[in-house]
Every structure is written in C-alpha cells, then in structure tokens.
Design brief:
By secondary structure, the chain is mainly alpha-helical. The protein is built from 4 helices and no strands. The two termini are about 35 Å apart.
C-alpha cells in the first residue's frame, strides 16, 4: 500500500472502527463479572501517582503553577489504557467471558 491508502486506512480506523469497537464492548459488558477490587486498585494507584506528580512538579519548578503540574499529572496517569489494556484483558480473561 502506498501513503495515500495508509492515510485513509488510518483515518477510517481511528474515526469509525475503534470507537465502534469500544462502544460495542461497553454495551456488552456484564457488570457482575467485573473485578471491582482490581478497579479500586487501579483507581487508587492512579490517584497516588497523580498527587505525587503534582507535588514533585511544584517542588522541582519552584513555582506555584498548579495548571502545569496538573497537566503533567494528567499526562502521567491518563496513558493509553484502552489501547494497551483491552487486548491484554481480552487475552487473559477470554475463557471467563
């Protein structure tokens, strides 16, 4: 494939296919099978990392720039969870679904 087809292929995947796949997965999710202890652990870990990044950023920059510190903390905690976690979770829990 040349660059023209690659560009349009990625546009279709990113604009339509991935959101449709995520929506379908959310609709079919059975909340009784969700491991809520794991969800709580992930939430707690992300909260701790967020607070630590904000504090370290304020201490290192030696300014009271909360906006920049919060932006760094968002970058640190809101990584590509869906793109990394969905295929791994689907592989690991395929038999229990």
């Amino acid at each position: 494939m040349n660059d023209f087809y690659n560009k349009h292929y990625l546009l279709i995947l990113g604009t339509y296919a991935l959101p449709a796949l995520l929506f379908k997965s959310m609709v079919e999710l059975n909340f009784h099978t969700v491991n809520w202890a794991l969800m709580l652990a992930i939430f707690t870990a992300k909260t701790i990392v967020f607070i630590l990044v904000v504090l370290v950023t304020i201490l290192v920059l030696r300014r009271n720039d909360i906006g920049r510190a919060a932006l760094y903390a968002i970058f640190a905690t809101q990584s590509n969870d869906i793109a990394l976690g969905f295929p791994i979770g689907k592989f690991l829990f395929e038999d229990s679904i």
